[in-house]
Amino acid sequence: MYPIYWIGIKESDLDDESELFEKSITFFGSGKGSNVSYSNESGTRINHNLGSEESSLFIAKNINEILSQNDNARFMYFSPYHSYCLPENLYGNVYCQNEKSILELLRNKINTRFWCAHSVPIVPSVLLEPSRCCYEFISKTFGNKSSEYVLQKNYSAGGYSTYLLNKNSHLSFDSNDILLVSPYIGESVPLNITAVIYEDDILFFPPSIQIVVNDSDRLLYKGADFIAYKGLNKSIKQKILQYSKVICENLKHIGYRGICGIDYITDMNEVFFMEINERFQASSYLINMALKKNHFPSLHQLCLETFHKAKSNISLSGFEVNYSSYIYTYHHRFRHCYQYILTKARSNKNIVRIVEDGFLQNTVFEEDAYLFTLVSDTNMVSIGYDNSINIDDNIREHLQLRQCDVLKTKISLMNQGFSITAPAMQYMNQSQNARTAINTGIDLILFDKIRVSSVWGKGRFNSMSPFELDYDQPRGLTLRHYGTTISTVNYDTPDLLQNKYTSSGISYSWIAFLANGRLQINHEPICFYKKHNISCCFCGLPEKETHFELQDIYEVINTYIEHCDFNSFFIGGASNVYTNGWKTIIDIAAYISAHSKKPIYLMAPPPHEKGILHQLKQSGITEISFNIEMFDRKIAKELMPGKGKIPLDLYYSMLEESTLLWGKTGKVRSMIIVGLESTKSLLEGIEHIAQMGVQPILSPFGPRQDTELRNMVPFSSEKLLELFKKCIEICKQYDLTPGPDDIECQNNTLSIPKEYYV
User: Is 260 inside a domain boundary?
Assistant: First the structure.
């Protein structure tokens, strides 16, 4: 067998193929062992998708040196088309080389799209000259069926010649370009499947969701998630395989052999073909990791087989790729992120591999140059119920926050969690521990008055959060973002009465909870829905099966009134209003009213009778909330099998009646979960209740580790901020603000003191 040399992009693409290849020649690599790389020798990392004359000369020089020592050397390319850059007399030295005409057909996005159109569905597409690539003309061409459009140059990789056009875009193209233009399917999922084609056989590997981000109107490829793909519905998976079989049979018919990747998008109803990649994929090394783990030949070995074997002798039945990846490329505005991310990744148990490919901090970086990749054994993305792809915020790069970014800081901290440095942990242990908040988080106080409930060090990627709680002697506890201090920090200490017991032996913690200036009273020990196994999929409330009487509740109330300073009472947390629940609530409220002048806030499911509302008012309830949680009742029934069955009409009827009793000034509320339904449904619902004079409370979804939705990725902080601002604008029309108004109770909601509104 002749010695084989690899010509590719990254050293990691081989994934320890030391026995197959003598040496690798790559754009990015360590330059150690059997690797030579342009990045190592030049001290520069380039945007390889655009190429450079110097890097091409580097590869040519190394090939010539190898051939000068052994003219029997053979070469295998990541992208075989580039082998045709060699002198014609060396074509015989290249393995896995398809005919140039076939590769040219497949590299041409326009020709390939229309070649496949007769056999599989494609996105409606037209060809346009650059002079016609303006929003008005394109929109008219497609009958104004979309607000955004995708423009692709004929030859590109990694999305670097794929653009998103809308009314506000300012794109310009070379006069020689011909662009492939399609309507942008906003709520769509990009997919990729790898195939290896033999003369009489085709191997299909598990598909992946492609991680694509919008970077200044460029749709850039950032990684792959094979784990998240498994969550797609069965119909979509069947279509991916069905269409891929048709395409690969066509490829086989024209004589194509070896590896290829096929890109699709799906809107969850149909799958649309996008393009064929006549080469290895950026995600191929993840498949190789799984193949190696299962003692299968690598993709490189299988690809070699296709050129001298008619069939494969392996079966991929049951084969899975349980990895996801995120690729980091250099952007000057994110230069503060990269070393921080690497450091955090090294201590994160879910990061199973850091692919550095010779990355060094002191290297010269071109804009958009490849840096490194993180590989995880859990999903980095998930598909939301609005069919949007949510990328874990702690994996992504973020702009440096400033001390004036109060709203953005609160939302990001709620969403991303934080870590605690050793000095901060030592200080907190030696002074007073922080009170544990919802989801085992901590309620932090920033900028002197902003309360934020945030989780620390828990969850899949929370330890990689850009936020850190730190301590130094002069300033005390501080919050840092990528190492830069943005605020001093305070926190609430534990409620010491939680350790007390009533005269009948009932723990105070089962009945009451003092936090954020409010005493919460549980009128029942366990949620009705949890007790009957129809609880909400995202709820992490403990299952405390106990029993207490009204006298126990009254005893606890008396103790707190006597020994603690707080602003208001809160009744809720059990949802049992189906038997004697309303009577219990009314009795508790009446007892509080008789012993205290503090406001009483009730949060409960809506009653079926309006008369109960009048009784609640008479008992002393001063504020009331019936939490709709999700306006999309189809999703609500799926995620809240008990509470989700309550009809919206009942909520609307009781909320509207409540505004007649408590007014339209924010005393009647409804809490809405942000991140579990479409933004369209969410905003329409907010508009509807605001019209009635009901204050919306926005509570962002966050995955809790002990729930069914623990692996679901929430909305990004940027998306939450955008939604919150839209909610403010809706509320303004009806003389409302997003609730709650009480600053101390804003800790776990998208809300902020009014003076910070922009």
Answer: no
Residues 4, 1: Cα–Cα separation, whole Å: 9
In a domain, 254, yes or no: no
Whether residues 563 and 475 share a domain: the answer is no
Most confident of 76-80, 424-428, 491-495, 543-547: 76-80
Paired with 507 in beta bridges are 501
Among the listed residues 714, 636, 754, 629, the one whose alpha carbon sits nearest the alpha carbon of residue 454: 714
Long-range Cβ pairs for the range 663-666 (8 Å, 24+): 663/693, 664/692, 664/693, 664/694, 664/734, 664/735, 664/736, 665/693, 665/735, 666/695, 666/736, 666/737, 666/739, 666/740, 666/741
Q: What is the DSSP letter of 739?
A: B
Residue 533 region by backbone torsions, left for phi larger than 0, else alpha for psi between -120 and 50, else beta: left
Place of tokens 């030049």: 42
- What DSSP letter does each residue of 240-294 carry, written as one string? HHHHHHHHHHHHHHTT--EEEEEEEEE-SS-EEEEEEE-S--TTHHHHHHHHHHT
Count: domains in the chain: 3
Same domain for 613 and 509: yes
Q: What whole-number distance in Å separates Cα of residue 472 and Cα of residue 421?
A: 11
Strands 74-77 and 4-10, how do they pair? Answer: parallel
382/303 Cα distance (integer angstroms): 31
Q: Which of 558, 593, 625 is the last residue of a domain?
A: 625
In a domain, 52, yes or no: yes
In angstroms, rounded to a whole number, what is the distance separating the alpha carbons of residues 347 and 368?
27
User: Which residues have C-beta within 8 Å of that of residue 714, sequence separation ≥ 6?
Assistant: 390, 393, 415, 675, 700, 701, 702, 703
Name the one residue in this structure whose structure tokens are 């233009």.
181
Separation CA 640–CA 38 (nearest Å): 55
Give the structural domain span for 615: 498-625
Cα–Cα distance, 636 to 641 (Å, whole number): 7
* pLDDT value, residue 544: 61
Q: What is the pLDDT of residue 437?
A: 65
Write the DSSP symbol of residue 542: -
Would you tell me how many other CB atoms lie within 10 Å of the CB of residue 514? 20
Same domain assignment for residues 475 and 526: no
Amino acid residing at 638: E
Count CA within 13 A, CB hemisphere, residue 743: 11
Q: What are the tens digits of pLDDT across the range 438-452?
A: 556 888 999 988 999
Distance of CA 461 to the CA centre of its chain: 11
What residues does 210 pair with on adjacent strands?
224
Residues 485 and 507 in one domain: no
Let me know whether 418 and 478 are in one domain: yes
- pTM value > 0.90: yes
531 and 620 inside one domain: yes
Q: Which residue has the tokens 């942008």?
A: 184
Nearest 10 degrees: Cα torsion 387, 392, 395, 398: 90
Distance (Å, whole) CA 66 – CA 72: 9
